[in-house]
Amino acid sequence: MSIRQGEFMTLLGPSGCGKTTLLNLAAGFLSPDGGEILIGGERMNDVPTYKREIGMMFQNYALFPHMNVAGNVAYGLKVRGVAKQERDRRVEAVLGLVRLAGFEDRTPRQLSGGQQQRVALARALVINPTVLLLDEPFSALDKNLRASMQVELREIQRKLNVTTIFVTHDQSEALSLSDRLAVMSEGRIRQLGTPQQIYRQPCDRFVASFIGDANVLRGRLEGVEGASAIIAIGPVRVKVPCGPLADVARSAAVDLFVRPEHLALSEATEACATHGTIVAHVYQGGYVDTYIECGEASRDRLLVRSGGHEAMTRWPTGARVGISVTSGEAVAFV
User: Fold this and answer.
1) Who is most buried in 36, 155, 216, 279, counting CB within 10 A?
2) Helices 113-125 and 84-97 meet at what angle, rounded to 10?
3) Does 172 lie in the same domain as 239?
4) 72 neighbors 58 (Cβ within 8 angstroms)
């Protein structure tokens, strides 16, 4: 994996997949069994952590409780032998950047969770790191504060153009923050790409199932047209990227993975891909999630996500409906 200068790269995967181990290898807390770690083109395998010029922010922030904000932020500069006048200048600048000007004399226990997080970020940034490493820094924050801090972090990262490696198991966090992300499973990178590529063009079943919500419909491979494969689902033909199906025999059974927003409800006619019975509507504020029982057409209940309230008023629970698939917005695997 190669990370470009100034890029925001996220390591995403379930617990135990190896993402924090990979971060610790980059930091120098662990030694690799093989391969190379390069920062700025220089081999880092045998370089100790304190010489790698990295900034790191931990899940628990790791602030020194006996130091005030200024002391915490200045610590990395002090151990590097930076003169006090220069330390004070850089601490003042970075606290302004994270919107904590005037908080210099407060102790960590006098700060909110979001403010403590800003102090930890300022401490990581004040040394002007070559690489910024972030290990699930938002996990302890409530939903609203987490969303706000995500926006602030991205603004600061872009302003400083600092190369950043971010670890999370939160899919929405990874999709909203990253320039690119690496989806990991069992110590391996399953797919590396932009958020749009990962979400819309997953490379295998694991990625398709792990990222976002996905419905699975049973179908058959009918043929190939250029870069597209034609999947038959009942009387309907759906185009999908050919990649995973290039060497698959015609008429083979395949599973079609479709996002909830790419399914649509209609009257139950023969022209629909499949039919089902509405089990429940779940109001989510800006949209409605509708769960549908489809029998043999799908292993699980289908989830249809639609804006507005039409689905709730037009098709009550227990209603028989037709379901159509947006062509070009699905992927299929054997």
Assistant:
1) 216
2) 130
3) no
4) no
Tokens representing 251 are: 């008429």
pTM of the complete model? 0.86
> Is residue 179 domain-shared with residue 249, that is, in the same domain?
no
| Per-residue pLDDT tens digits for 102-161 | 999 999 999 988 889 889 999 999 999 999 999 988 877 777 788 888 888 899 999 999
| Whether residue 179 is found in the same domain as residue 95 | yes
Closest CA to 231 of 201, 203, 247, 252: 252
**Distance between alpha carbon 213 and the CA centroid of its chain, in Å?**
13
In what order do the strands lie in the sheet containing 274-283?
263-266, 320-325, 274-283, 287-293, 302-307
Say yes or no: 41 and 177 in one domain: yes
Residue 295 has pLDDT above 80, yes or no: no
Distance CA 111, CA 117 (A): 9
CB 320 within 8 A of CB 274: no
Rounded-to-integer distance, Cα 193 and Cα 179, Å: 8
